[in-house]
Amino acid sequence: MTESPVTVYEPAAANPDAGVAPKTPPRRALGSSPLVLGTIGLLALVLLFEILPRLEILPSQFFPTSSEIGAALIDQLGQPDFWAALLDTIYGWALGLLIAAVAGVVLGIVIGSSHFLRELTASTIEFLRPIPSVALIPLAVLLFGTAIESKLLLVIYASFWPVLIQVLYGVQDVDPVAQDTARAYRFDFWARIRYVTWPTALPYIMTGLRLSAAVALILAVTSELVIGNPGLGNRLAVAQSSGAIEATYALVVVSGILGVIVNLVFRYIERRTLSWHPSQRAEVAL
Amino acid sequence: MAFLRRFGFALGLPLVLFALWWVTSANSTNFYFPPLSLILDSLVAEWFGPRLADDVLPSLMRLAAGYAIAAVVGITLGVLIGTYKRLRDLLEPVLEFFRAIPPPVIVPILMLIFGIENTMKIVVIAFGCMWPILLNTAEGVRAVDSVLSDTARTYRISGAARLRYLILPSASPQMAAGLRQGLSVAIILMVISELFAASDGLGFAIVQAQRSFAIPEMWAGMIMLGLLGFLLSLLFRLVENRWLAWYHGLRRAQRAG
């Protein structure tokens, strides 16, 4: 395969936002499988966090042991408030992501389909995109206080851009021959979107969604933490300020697990919706 | 003409939006949305005045320190993890977990450990933006072209030379992607770390303005932060274009051929 370097680098170079590395293709290792080694790695982490604070290599007043964190975690799982907070976080995340995704896909297809609009909006998008979403925090607080709208404002702003940018790339990636063929066969506008643009852009949309999902979670938790909307972040802030350090760590672990689940779910959705796409087939063939 | 056309396209919409904001807010009596002229006055008087040295500079210094630490640690660990498959298998789930933690949630914990001074803020920035750099570097190192890698082995190129002439250049496009992602995370964390407890900094000043209902100042601060994000990403792109000029040229040639 002479073109292998191109395909290898494609995600990083073509998508400025694509930072998430593609999964390592499963390969057979000599001796132990990645699954076993990975489990050992996780266990080692837990063990380190048990031993180091006990030996005071890490000061135990700041670093509770794994068993203490685990106990705090179980304690949290038994509290109805915890589940309410978790639901609040997930609700804000999902609603914000949904709005951002719909807006990003629709605007991306509209802008991307027209050369004129693309040129007209390019500079504005390039300017607005790098504006850190946290810049909106003061405005969100003033306008909405701790109501869910302030969380949504931050989540939507942050997760809108990855989707939009990816859709723009995807729409531009449409094969001109396919486009012309569809035109020659008198496909109308909607049919061209449905049968030509959409399938081409779908892998890009999925990448954008996966990136946005992670960003949206970060912003949802951040807004709870900083603004004080009800949710995991707020619970964490309360735990920290009341000196419940084990609970603080436990909630950090929960947010990490939530992040892992979000990543896994979106990778799964990506693989399912794109099972027909060459990029996914190639992985199976390896 | 072509130049004028490009110029028009690049500035057209921003100018229209700016004019729209100016006109619609001109006689605004809404407390939260003051006239744009007032905001710009405050931007020039405050943010490009005394606050530039008092607040913006300390923020930028912490950003630079945290980002530099993250780049060094992330690239070093990334090269190691990308090179040794066993190590990668061992650490992958752990790294996936750490990457998935929303970086701002570690602020409360780091506040306990490091207090609220510069150290805490730099550690927060470094910790948060290290993961994209690390994981992308590891992926780039892992995906080094096998023909190149075999050729290097055949010529007995190993150790430092191998790192210098094979691994780092091959992985640099991915590294750049990670560094770019890391930069936007770093800016976010720069602001967040100042929201909790601080005596100076951009984030601190903006929130201070908001709490004291100095609304034009708050808007000006938000614009300042936006400008900063924009300029830093522009700067990054300039550096990247120079650094990876060979790579972009290679891609163009491959696409054309």
TrEMBL record, chain A:
Any Pfam family: BPD_transp_1
InterPro entries, alphabetized: MetI-like, MetI-like_sf
Parts of the chain that traverse the membrane: 35-52, 90-111, 131-148, 154-171, 201-227, 247-266
Entry keyword Transport: yes
Keyword annotations of the record: Cell membrane, Membrane, Transmembrane, Transmembrane helix, Transport
GO biological process, one term: transmembrane transport
Domain ABC transmembrane type-1: 86-270
Keyword field contains Cell membrane: yes
Cellular component GO terms, alphabetical: plasma membrane
Compartments where located: Cell membrane
Membrane topology: Multi-pass membrane protein
Main location: membrane
Similarity section: Belongs to the binding-protein-dependent transport system permease family.
Protein name: ABC-type nitrate/sulfonate/bicarbonate transport system, permease component
Species of provenance: Geodermatophilus sabuli
UniProtKB/TrEMBL annotation, chain B:
CDD domains to which the protein is assigned, alphabetical: TM_PBP2
One term under GO cellular component: plasma membrane
Compartments, as annotated in UniProt: Cell membrane
Keywords: Cell membrane, Membrane, Transmembrane, Transmembrane helix, Transport
Family: Belongs to the binding-protein-dependent transport system permease family.
Keyword Transport on entry: yes
Organism field: Geodermatophilus sabuli
Residue ranges constituting the ABC transmembrane type-1 domain according to the UniProt record: 56-240
Phylogenetic placement of the source organism: Bacteria, Bacillati, Actinomycetota, Actinomycetes, Geodermatophilales
Single GO biological process annotation from the record: cellular response to sulfur starvation
Protein name, UniProt field: ABC-type nitrate/sulfonate/bicarbonate transport system, permease component
Transmembrane portions of the chain: 64-84, 105-134, 183-207, 219-239
Membrane topology: Multi-pass membrane protein
